[in-house]
Amino acid sequence: MEDIFGKALLDYLEGNDWKNIKTHSSVAGKDVMPLSYLFRAFEEMPLLEQKALELCKGSVLDIGCGAGPHSLWLQNHGFKVTALDSSKGAIDTCRSLGIEKTVHCGVLDYSGTTFDTLLLLMNGIGIVGRLALLVTYLEHFKKLLNPGGQVLMDSSNIIYMYEEDDDGGVWIPGDRDYYGEVEFTMEYKGQKSPSFYWLYLDFNTLENAAMAHGFTCDLVSQGEHYDYLARLTLKK
After folding, report:
1. Rounded mean pLDDT for each run of 10 residues along the chain, 236 residues in total
2. What CATH number did the domain enclosing 37 receive?
3. For burial by CB atoms within 10 Å, which of 38, 85, 113, 140 has the most?
4. Where is the Methyltransferase domain (predicted)?
């Protein structure tokens, strides 16, 4: 499969004839992903991301690292951080920016090392895709955590994006199990990615799933637009 995302990151980093990534989603329709935002400095990050970075401890696995802005900040502040992404271009970008430890694979394929912090930002839990797979990821996270470790993740409750019925209910498409399962395609320089699902997870659903699978789940902070930062720790 063509690594559209990674190609865009490398074009931007190398100053090639880059374009912003176009996206199309089953909820919001057409949109644009500005490449400059993927390389943002700490001061340009949302407050939830800044808070998450400040809460990191010990060794950190930056899951879905993208261009590596979070990994780079952590590394520059003395953390032992590993940047992980399924996009080869993203990992090549991280290496070019000086991130010392990188892994090119999906998190479910990664094992053998444990961490004090698992970090999933920019709606990081989105990698789960479908709600039915959340349990698989939670169980895998257990295997990646050191004793006393934590998972820091952000997401959004996107129920507000759906139309209300006359009786106050919300109309949800019948082809998905949960309203936060959003189908995306990306386009870059005329090339389109295969469609994929990205999960937007409301906090109550996350909390219930986490508690059912051996975690405590704390709401650390809430943003201005239905977004939040959560911290998961294993029950003692």
Report:
1. 90 94 90 95 96 98 98 98 98 98 98 97 95 97 97 90 59 72 94 94 96 97 92 92
2. 3.40.50.150
3. 85
4. 60-149
